[in-house]
Amino acid sequence: MSNAFRAPPPAHQESPPLSSPERLVHLLSRVADKDREAFAELYEASVAKLFGTVLRILKQQAWANDVIQEVYVTIWQKAGRFESERASAITWMVTIARNAAIDELRKAPTRPTESDSILENWVAETPSAYDQRHQDETSTQLTLCLDELEESRQQMVRLAYLEGWSRAELASHFDQPVNTVKTWLHRALKQLKGCLGS
Amino acid sequence: MSDRDDKDMLAAEFVLGTLDRDERDRVHRQRQHDSELEQRIGEWESRLAPLADEIQDLTPGPDLLPLIQQRIKAIEDAARGDTASDAPPSTASVTPLHRRLAFWKAATGLSSAAAVILAAVLLAQPSPSTSESNFVAVFQQDDRQPAFMLSVNLEQRRLHVRPVSAEPLPDRSYQLWIKHDDLGSAPRSVGVLDDDLSLDQAALRDYEPELLKHATFGISVEPPGGSPTGQPTGPAIHGYLYPTEPSGGQRL
């Protein structure tokens, strides 16, 4: 069993788009068959996105390190449930990462503060090949729809989705009762849904 | 507002991330058997997914992959072992244990990168041939090799701390902590390690085996003689889960 895992490929192997959607789908299907080599490749192709997601919510590197491990264990275990007609592979993985990070955050008695963040010590990579090729129509469409929302509602949606803010945190930040924030969020979400045409 | 609307908004807020812990737990449970909710969640995931493009890629520290592979292997080995011994699958226990680590870290109120020390207590899934009373915790700093191992015999309430890569630090002491919900939200000191990094073997004598079994342990680096505040103050040793020997001497 000691040879069960292989070393990951070199970190900076820049040959053809490591994270192309098709390749990720292919890797996920191999991971579903418990292919450990594919798992290592999938990790290399996706970890920067998922770690960026988790760290942005949790703010603390060590915490994010823990959660990202859990995320990849989940990906290993659930790869067989990925349905390519429902979502892209990266969306499916980001969803797992966001859920894990937000669940962890909600369990913490106190929210980590920004000062704990070591984000500034991290060299941000340039947008990945994935990002560059996928600033596509969907993205534009959602962005356009967000732009139609009032400024504060846009901020709320982004703070919640990207930073993991709860209703209560939004309420305190925007100095509004929680129920008002809930109403605003629901209106904003309905407006987005209408704008996106579904 | 109709029930349908309510459900759609519940799904939307779940995906957006604004629900509190109880609400999220409820959604996690409900979606298992509520196909409409599950579908709504999927739709909202697709709608909002493009927002993730605004997230900057960040490369984590090195060597997380080997740790992930170890955990997967541990889970799978344990699952195999359990099939043979007819015990409950350990997969289920590994995850909650791991979650407790994050909780422990958060509960100390310290910046994890700077000040939290964690350990995982691995509950050995006992196979018939092994004692149910022996437990092992591994204390690991960053991604390096284990710093300490702690073995506990529940029956005799005896502990043994063994430094692995850890060495005595000049003008600093290592301190062992225990955390359990029954003991309150803050970690409690078990004791300060001696200069030779040992600890009184009976230091856990006042704790019930049941509590010990579900507790989390941590080791912090403190000023000489231990933490002046009664809470961990020092820099981090980081915990990861490792399987213990019982199911046939597996090693990672």
Automatic annotation (TrEMBL), chain A:
Ranges where the RNA polymerase sigma factor 70 region 4 type domain occurs: 141-192
Entry keyword set: Sigma factor, Transcription, Transcription regulation
A molecular function GO annotation: DNA binding
Top-level taxon in the UniProt lineage: Bacteria
Start and end residues of each RNA polymerase sigma-70 region domain: 42-108
Listed GO biological process terms: DNA-templated transcription initiation
Disordered, as annotated region: 1-20
Gene3D superfamilies: 1.10.1740.10, Winged helix-like DNA-binding domain superfamily/Winged helix DNA-binding domain
Similarity remark: Belongs to the sigma-70 factor family. ECF subfamily.
Name this polypeptide is given: Sigma-70 family RNA polymerase sigma factor
Organism for this UniProt entry: Halomonas sp. RT37
TrEMBL record, chain B:
InterPro entries (alphabetical): Anti-sigma-K/W_factor, RskA_C
Recorded coiled-coil stretches: none
Entry protein name: Anti-sigma K factor RskA C-terminal domain-containing protein
Lineage, highest ranks first: Bacteria, Pseudomonadati, Pseudomonadota, Gammaproteobacteria, Oceanospirillales
Region (Disordered): 222-252
Record-annotated Anti-sigma K factor RskA C-terminal domain positions: 111-235
Matching Pfam families: RskA_C
